[in-house]
Amino acid sequence: QVQLVESGGGLVQAGGSLRLSCAASGGSFSTYAMGWFRRAAGKEREFVAAISVRGTLIYYGDSVKGRFTISRDDAKNTVLLQMNSLKPEDTAVYSCAARYGIGLTYYQYLRAHEYNSWGQGTQVTVSS
Fold first, then answer.
1. Rounded to whole angstroms, how far apart are CA atoms 86 and 10?
2. ∠ Cα 79 68 10 (to 5°)
3. Strand, helix or coil for residue 91
4. CA distances from 115 to 18, 36, 67, 97, 109 (A)
């Protein structure tokens, strides 16, 4: 099973940018679909973005479309989340997740319970 470690979180002012990184080890990274999810205090986990094997399919949650960009580097076993135009409502713990990525349906990319490997999360705080 793949192990995931996120980094890049922190405190940023509204309108600023952050780039989150998720490093994978212990598995065949190129065969995994990767997702980013977030959980704000007192709220349910929310889908942020997902990327398929080879990066041919990319999906975003409605609240981040046009501001966030997900990408993957299979040579470095890494998935990135570039976050621009950050808003206070983006404040949350961001976690990356992985699952075997062949033959997935659309909803399997979006649903947290479809992923079986998770990182510990990284805090993103956006001040107003």
1. 12
2. 75
3. coil
4. 24, 10, 24, 6, 8
Residue linked to tokens 């947290």: 112
2-53 pLDDT per residue, tens: 999 999 999 999 999 999 999 999 889 999 999 999 999 999 999 999 999 9
pLDDT tens column, 63-80 = 999 999 999 999 999 999
- Exposure string of 8-27, with b = 16+ CB inside 10 Å and e = fewer, is bbeebeeeeebebbbbbeeb
pLDDT per position as a tens digit, 78-92: 999 999 999 999 999
Cα–Cα distance measured from residue 95 to residue 104, given in angstroms and rounded to the nearest whole number? 20
Residue positions counted in the chain = 128
